Amino acid sequence: MHCNPSVLSGHFKIATQFLASFMSRRSHSTSPSPRPQKRAKLDHLTQEDFKNGVFLAPMVRSGALPTRLFALKHGATLVWGPEIVDKAILHATREVDPETGVISYNGVSRAIFTTHPIEKPYLIYQIGSADPELAVQAAKTVLQDISGVDLNCGCPKPFSTHAGMGAALLTNPDLLCSILSALRKEMPPNITVTAKIRLLPSQEDTLKLVERIINTGISALTVHCRTRNMREKDAALIERLRGIVNFVEGMGGGIAVIENGDCKGWEDAKRVQEVTGAHSVMIARGAESNPSCFSSNPLKDVERTLVPSYLRVSQYLQNHWSLTKFCVNQFKGIRVEVTKAESHELHQTLSQAKGYGYMKDVMGPATGKEDFQEIVNSIEEISPREHRMLVEEQSLASESAPPEPTARADSPNLPLRDMQDEIVTPEGTQNPEPPGSGAPFLPSETSKVYATIPGRDATTPTPSGSLSLASM
Ligand SMILES: Cc1cc2nc3c(=O)[nH]c(=O)nc-3n(C[C@H](O)[C@H](O)[C@H](O)COP(=O)(O)O)c2cc1C
């Protein structure tokens, strides 16, 4: 590892202490204890927003609008939309439903992407692309409704890789980086640019790739801790992430590394963070099973506590029935009062249902409008800045010792500061600190940290079901 171990171990100690204190605070976030004075709000994400969070992963089909909203309601810090191939969105027509506020990007026969203004401060739009220009055009198409764009560099499915997209980009770093650079150059400063990769078989090659990616000026990097050939049933190699986190911290730009792979929920995120040192954790299948997994107290008996409300909200938002049915089918959680027979009966009813009307008995008399309002209220109750678990940047800048720039993957003996001219920080970048400025990622005093949390997008070429998608 080409980094300064003593500096880094110090930072990890601080990080661990901070996260322990932070997480316990977040667990009790509904208590009325007075909060430290708030800073002025930013209306857009910064690279700090990618730290100290637990995020909803991008999921084709399973990451539909209602799921993202429930995830936010239950404490997800940021939510990624499902991967949408660049060309798919280019000719979509944007329509706003005056009743619900739902924004649909409609293709010829279906909605390519749906969103709602309430999720905009937390929404990262994921692009599948193998072309810088198309990626930029796609991002520009949805710009007004999102906070960040993410490039999918991890999907190993042939429909993605045959066109040079997804995991194919991992072995074409020139193209990968040219897409990220183009996005960073063409996006306004208030839109973050991030990437989601998989591990390469060798750690050394992974670090070389990571270095190039970070140098494009991205705001955060998600690492799905599996290689391209690994399937979701293979345990994620999360222990490999610490070396990557160390390396990125050694680069000194304060860029967050987000762990992805095998995290089950909020409690489990502590374990993952401890093992990996990651700045944040991203959850896919845990949230697919139970979108409330972001809470310190996730819903039990989802058949009663989640399914009826999810169906009502989905109907109210006119989420396509087949998509809703697919998502509800994935829900499962700890059963306390619900019997196996009750759960089985629900799934039987669902499997025979051809529309929301068939689920009336499950949904009950309430309309989804009230459930939706509840979601809106809980998202609005906690300001976006708090919701994102931000750290106090001023204290970061003034009170913490910056990590010593160390080295680069291909030239371990060349200090990073010698390569800083190569780091391109677009003018007016959203990054509060230009890459290489040495901004630390955590404060030295935990008391300087504030913030906590409250407690019809079938989009991409998706030939197969969720299990195979999990390997994206
Ligand atoms: C149903 C489903 C759809 C997925 N779609 C995407 C996607 O659109 N883009 C992406 O980068 N990864 C996608 N993935 C992969 C996840 O984001 C994540 O990397 C993977 O499931 C590992 O995380 P986990 O162990 O928490 O499930 C998908 C996974 C699942 C289960």
CATH topology (fold) name of the largest domain? TIM Barrel
Structural class: alpha/beta
Quick check: average pLDDT? 80
Bound molecules: flavin mononucleotide
The percentage helix is 25-40%
**Shape category:** globular
- Please tally the β strands and state the result: 12
Distance between the termini: 28 Å
Beta content comes to 5-15%
Q: Helical element count?
A: 19
Rg value: 21 Å
Judging by the overall fold, what is the CATH architecture of the largest domain?
Answer: Alpha-Beta Barrel
- CATH class of the largest domain equals Alpha Beta
The domain count comes to 2
Quick overview:
It is built from 19 helices and 12 strands. The protein is of the alpha/beta class and 472 residues long.
Describe this structure in words.
The protein is an alpha/beta fold and 472 residues long. The chain has helices at residues 5-27, 65-73, 86-90, 132-142, 158-161, 173-186, 203-214, 241-251, 266-276, 285-289, 302-305, 307-316, 321-330, 340-352, 360-363, 368-381, 384-387, 393-399, 466-469, and strands spanning 54-56, 79-80, 84-85, 93-96, 103-106, 111-115, 123-128, 148-153, 192-199, 220-227, 256-260, 280-283. It has two domains: 5-29 and 41-297 and 383-428, TIM Barrel, CATH 3.20.20.70; 302-379, no CATH class. It contains 19 helices and twelve strands. The strands form two sheets. Strands 1, 2, 3, 7, 8, 9, 10, 11 and 12 form a nine-stranded parallel sheet that branches. A three-stranded antiparallel sheet has the order 4-5-6, with no helix packed on it. Helix 7 links the parallel strand 9 and strand 10. Helix 2 (65-73) packs across helix 16 (368-381) and helix 7 runs parallel beside helix 8. It is globular. The two termini are 28 Å apart. Mean pLDDT is 80; it is low at 1-40, 387-407 and 410-469. The chain binds flavin mononucleotide (FMN). The site of flavin mononucleotide has 28 residues, from helix 10 and helix 19. Residues 459-472 have a biased composition (Polar residues).
